[in-house]
Write a structure and sequence with these properties.
Blueprint (H helix, E strand, L loop, with lengths): L14 H23 L2 H32 L5 H23 L2 H25 L4 H23 L1
Helix pairs in contact: 1-2, 1-5, 2-3, 2-4, 3-4, 4-5
């Protein structure tokens, strides 16, 4: 067997994206909790707020790829077009999720967050990105999907 090389530890996630990302999870966690503990009169409002917030954040996450496409120095024009086209898909899916029945909309949104993370993984394998980006997105995505799934099954 060959010895495993000691890899340097990954760079820490910069504090601003870490705190902004973590702060963005607060509405997911609080609203999911409200869905589970509120009486019926308030539960519908918590569901709607959660679904709407998820749609807004999903649109934001999609827009990240638009920014990457505009600024990444190693993209060909064709790659840039593909990434820009992809970047609008999460917003369109989020809009459709707002039109769908409530629990279906939450499930669709959760699935789109998972798909978008898969696209992030593919993107970072093809194009150089800060090494912390995928770790941050992965952690945030797990919490978001868990919250949306918990709310959808209530």
């Amino acid at each position: 067997m060959r010895p495993v090389k000691n890899l340097p530890p990954p760079a820490p996630i910069p504090s601003v994206p870490l705190w902004l990302g973590a702060g963005g999870l607060i509405p997911f966690v609080i609203l999911t909790g409200a869905v589970w503990i509120s009486d019926e009169a308030y539960r519908i409002m918590a569901y709607e707020w959660l679904r709407t917030y998820a749609a807004v954040i999903l649109s934001f996450v999609g827009a990240l790829h638009w920014g990457f496409a505009m600024l990444h120095p190693k993209m060909s024009p064709q790659e840039r077009n593909i990434v820009m086209a992809w970047s609008v898909v999460p917003a369109l899916v989020a809009w459709l999720a707002l039109l769908a029945p409530l629990r279906h909309g939450l499930a669709v949104t959760a699935a789109m967050f998972a798909l978008h993370y898969a696209m992030d993984r593919a993107f970072t394998q093809r194009f150089e990105m800060p090494d912390w980006y995928l770790r941050l997105r992965g952690g945030l995505t797990v919490v978001v999907i868990a919250c949306l799934a918990l709310a959808a099954i209530r």
